[in-house]
Glutamate--tRNA ligase, mitochondrial (Apodospora peruviana), 671 residues
Amino acid sequence: MSVITVLRRPVCPKCTRIRSLSVTRLWFSSSSTVDEKFELGPATTKFRNPFEKLRLPNTPCRTRFAPSPTGYLHLGSLRTALFNYLLARATGGQFILRIEDTDQSRLVPDAEERLYEDLKWAGLKWDEGPDVSSLPYRQSQRLVLYNNFAKQLIDEGKAYKCFCSVEELELAQRTAQQRGGHHGHSCSCRFHSSESLQKRAEAGQPFTVRFKSSETPVVVQDIVYGRYCRNVRDDDFIIMKQDGFPTYHFANVIDDKFMKITHVIRGAEWLVSTPKHVDLYNAFGWTPPAFAHLGLLVNMNRQKMSKRDGDISISWYRERGYLPSALLNFVAMLGWNRGNVRSDVMTLHDMINQFTLNFSKGDSAVSFEKLPFLQRKHQQLLFQQKAYEAQWSFVNPITDIIESTETTRLLSRRTEPSQSYTGPDPLLLDSLGAGIREGYRENGKGSLQTHILTLLRLTILRANNSNSASISISDPSKTHATCQDFVTQHKYLFWGIPKHVLESTFVCDMLSRSVNQAQVPAIRHAKFWENLHRAVIRETVAALRSLLSLLSELDAQDWGEEHPWTLDRLQPIVKTLGSSETAPAAPPNEDGSGFRVGIFKVYRWALTALDHGPSIGNVMNILGKEETLLRLRNALEIAEKYEMMPKVKTNHRNRLASNSRIVSEDATTRF
């Protein structure tokens, strides 16, 4: 029997690597021509499905997040921690937190504590780490281990002590470049005997320890990028520094081995260093973990993220009220391909159930346009699920903002607000509402927090119940991405409305509040505007008087021990007054008469000086009896003042044509 082996290159021009050659063996005998034919993949392994490497292992995975306390947790590092966490949880494994503090000169004093706080806030709980185990999970506590393994490599001739100065190494590099070659050995100490190097060390000369890199480039198999190999061998890189601390390359290999890490998910900037790590694993005879390198986060100009682009510490997002679930949802979408899953909204539980190793190659451009949308959706989930503890955690930063704004308002009477102040203009705020002031006197901060929680539930769930996802995404008045936005957009549900603001909005926006553009005839002469203006004032006065009259009757009734000022008592009144708006719309006559005032808009102006927010009944219930009546009387006083004027000059044509917003921060300058 004879055997002929034929090497055949694939027809596809893209598959021209020698490792892709197929092998066809022809077995000949006297009775047959071809007995068997089969093809082999790379080396002697069978063909593998290209998507097989993306599937999760069937065994529990041990992953780690190993930050350096030389800075604070930012978006990129949070994404790395999240993906390692998800892999461990999805496979029933363990997630380890390790502190890599070998770069002692760059340590930031509070970075480690901030790291713990940010990870706990994000909900990424680790199974092993410095604060949950007696074992050393800081590299500075494992120096003996690193020195022992460095000595082992030296004894086996796989590493050597290097006494070269920085100047000598730079000279060697320049000489090699001038010769057009690659100076792979880095220094001449590699060629000295171990005895001579040991004598110099015993004499007290400072030295580093260098690893003898493989003479041929090391091949790395990466889950994301596939086969990776540099064109030239690595230099003999340092594994132990002169101060006795290991380098990152050496320490992370030793730690991953002894912590039994099975998978390493990290940024693509470490891919170029991975051959060094695999070379070390091979030198010790260890099996390296599986590697998956994530594309870098870049801005929309494909440049490295900076603080200007939002790549700042996670505490920045915490302080501004972003929910941890929303931020995790946001970073999870940066480089993770979820297949046919359509919804962008994911809880941490959803991420665990859906997780795969299907990461995209290349950098991920970060656009923050999606973050406010995710914040709104997770706010809605939070209040739908009645997670009271989580809801209160959202209330606390709003409380701090309100107290800080109130302090600034009081100080603004004497000094200008600081440049760092980003809250509402203190000049556009009156004192805190009567209900809040009274609650502060009786219960302190708790009354304000209850007020905030009630308002949050109304605004967030109202947006969710609108059955219009497109409106809730595009209209910022429906829900609010940050606590600062929430306070600013609902400022008059916390603070009183100064009379000059209320009067300014009445004059400037009266027509856009009361008359629909479709109701205005095409021909609009001066007399029409004058009569229309008079009619608006007259109808506004009547609407306010009607509401005050009904509320006075409600207050006069005897409800026994039950407090009369409740939503159940207020809603029927509002419904009664609003029933007139159910009639068909009719355009004004030529003299400006014949139209109906939008009384709900009038009431919203009188109570909040805004054009959005909770229903009128809910607003009155939130403000309380004293504050509601005070605001309605102030509004009626302003309307009656203009009713008595012989003539009022306004710019209604432009205001109505532009359909402008009711309140802006320059209200006082417009008046």
Summary: Confidence is low (pLDDT under 50) at residues 1-50, 466-480, 652-671. The CA atoms of residues 436 and 442 lie 10 Å apart. The longest strand covers residues 2-8. The first helix runs from residue 75 to 90.
